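Quick bug: Conserved hypothetical periplasmic protein output formatted oddly.
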Amino acid sequence: MEDMRIIKKNLFALLAGAMLVPTLSVAHPTIVDEAMEIMVSSVQENGIYGRWGYTAESAPEQYRRGGLAIFEENGQNKVVVKFEEADVFGQNVKVSGNTIRFKFTYEGATFDVELTVKGDTLTGNYTSPDGTYSIKADRLKVM
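Here's what came back:
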């Protein structure tokens, strides 16, 4: 009898966990793995550094919305571009004053990005094989 209660209790816990996992992945589709989230969670939010949600209205659908994390690690500037399916590190990241320039490759295409910060807004352009598009990003507030 005791064994049956333990089995039922464990089965309930397993089923409850299985129902919770899809809910978490829907609620946070851009969180790809814990290591990335821990690294990005340490981003300081001042000037150009921080987390940003971007829109590129005239860009192809798959590139219209996403996120950016701009931070410094071991004295080097870093960028992570967050798409729904993947997080991609920027290369050749250069920060000069309130402007950042970097490249990244996603789905076989190379993108060149240049953004300038003013307050809690980044504006600029990115160039891809499909053309050049304007991009605007707003600072994401972490509570």
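Actually, after a second look the formatting is fine. The chain has two helices and nine strands. Closing.
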